[in-house]
Every structure is written in C-alpha cells, then in structure tokens.
Amino acid sequence: MIEARAKLKNSKRIVVKIGTSSLVYGNGKTNLKRIQTLARVISDLMNTGKEIVLVSSGAVGLGVTKLNLPEKPGTIEERQAVAAVGQVNLMRTYGRAFEDYGYTAGQVLLTKNIIDGEESKKNSLNTFNALLKMNVIPIVNENDTVAVDEIKFGDNDNLSSIVARLIGADLLIILTDIDGYYSQNPNEHPDAVLYHNISDLSVKIEAAAGGAGSKLGTGGMLTKVHASRLAAEHGTNAVIANGNDPEIIYSILDGEDVGTLFIATSEPVGGDI
C-alpha cells in the first residue's frame, strides 16, 4: 500500500472534482477563500508540468443564492433556469481566481449522450487534449441547463470518473466534506473506521456507503465510492479526501496516507469508458 501511495507523485494528468458542499458556506454563500486556495494549488501544480482538469459542482447552488431562493427548486425547468444563472457566476469566480496565478480557465459542459456517441466522444477528448496543450484549465460540469434524466450523468462524481477515463488520467481526486470512506457514517458512529487504501474493487465495497449529499448538492458517499471504484477498474487511481483545505492535494501527491485511495489495477487508457 505504501508503494501505491508513493506512485501518486508521478501522476501527470489529474482530474480534481470538488462538490457543492466544499464551495459554499452553510448559508449558501460562495466560499471565496476555498476557491482561491484551490485555484492556487492547481496553478502551482500546473507550474510543475502537471495537467489538471477540474470537475466542479456548484452551478445550481450558486444560482439559488444569486436568485435569493430559499432552497433548490423542485421542478426540472426551474433547476435548469437556476443552473443557467449559477453557471455564469461559477465560471466568473473561477476565471478571476485562476487569472491571479497566470492561468486561463475554459468551460466544458457535457451531457451523457455526448459521451455515448463515438464521434462526439472523440471530439470531446480532442477538445480536452487541445485545452491541456494550451495550458488552459478545463472546468467541467454537467450541462444542467439542458440535461434531463435521459441524458444526465446523475451527479458530478460519476461525471468526474467518466472524464478521468475519457482522458486517460493517472489520478482522480474527489474532494468532499468528509475525510474519506468509512466503515460507517462517522457522524452517527464515533467508532467508524476510515479506510485508507482499497484494492478490492468489487461491487461489495459499496455496501457500507450510502446517504444523500447536502441540500444544495446531489451526491453522497455512495456515488463517490462508485465513481472511484470504476475509475480504478479502468486504470486511474482515485482518492476521496476532505476538501476543506484544498492543499490536501499536495499531501496526496506526496504519498501521505490521507483520504481513501482506490488502487488502480492497470494503466490508464484514454477513451476507454
């Protein structure tokens, strides 16, 4: 397990996913400090020659705040409208943050039908490769403004895993509001054990995970475990870690025993999803 952790420092192409709960305060306002820290860490890693793709939630959450709504709307059309407003604010915030460190962000909005089609999937991969070659940081989100159930990924945990497999990423980092994958919900069971390294990628590893995410988000630990397991099955190491301080990304790449590592069983292959 120590060897698997040590190898993470060699990861060149990395997908970082951050959830709504890590981007907004409990009152729904944007956590500007965390976004700024995340932008600094990613920019610093780009300075070392690494290629970073950021999968970011938060469009609906920021839209709810911008429109002064009491909670996330219940109807599809209302959520799509809120996402349209939130997406503008999300990208503006990221754009300013990355510019402070000399980098440009590019928006990539996806829906499941794009990835399901061979030609459109290839075009998406080409776009990612071109952006990374230009030292642009792709910021990916589901196109919530037009997505309906038939063409939805379901959540950005699943989307981040698909993107990691599409671009042949060496490492997927899922930042959330908990330290990693526990044997039980640590908020309800003080004796819950944190799993640091997982090599068993069978479906049974998802059995202990469950529960929904925050009132502004869509995912829970189950979606993160599922996404990490599938990424590892396709050759991409995956780590679930606490995103309260994005500098934890440094600790992950230094091989420290933080978060939960799902150990890849092979080498990543781009386009293999």
Please specify the SSE layout and strand pairing.
Blueprint: H1 2-6, E1 13-18, H2 20-23, H3 32-47, E2 51-56, H4 59-66, H5 76-99, E3 104-110, H6 112-116, H7 118-133, E4 136-142, H8 156-166, E5 171-176, E6 181-182, E7 194-195, E8 197-198, H9 221-233, E9 237-242, H10 248-253, E10 260-262
Parallel strand pairs: 1-2, 1-5, 2-4, 3-4, 5-9, 8-10
Antiparallel strand pairs: 6-7, 9-10
Helix pairs in contact: 3-5, 4-5, 8-9
Query: How would you sum up the major sheet?
Result: 8 strands, mixed
Which structural class should the secondary elements be placed in? alpha/beta
- Average pLDDT, all residues: 87
What topology, given as strand order, has the largest sheet?
Answer: 3-4-2-1-5-9-10-8
- How many helices? 10
Rounded Rg? 17 Å
Low-confidence stretches: 211-219
Instruction: Work out the helicity level.
Output: 25-40%
The tally of strands reads 10
Distance linking N and C termini: 26 Å
Query: Which of globular, elongated, flat, extended, rod-shaped describes the shape?
Result: globular
Strand content: 15-25%
N to C succession of SSEs: HEHHEHHEHHEHEEEEHEHE
Overview of the structural elements:
The chain contains ten helices and ten strands. Helices cover 40% and strands 17% of the residues. By secondary structure, it is α/β, with parallel strands linked by helices. Helix 3 packs across helix 5, helix 4 crosses helix 5 and helix 8 runs parallel beside helix 9. The chain has an eight-stranded mixed sheet with strand order 3-4-2-1-5-9-10-8, with helices on both faces. The chain has a two-stranded antiparallel ribbon with strand order 6-7.
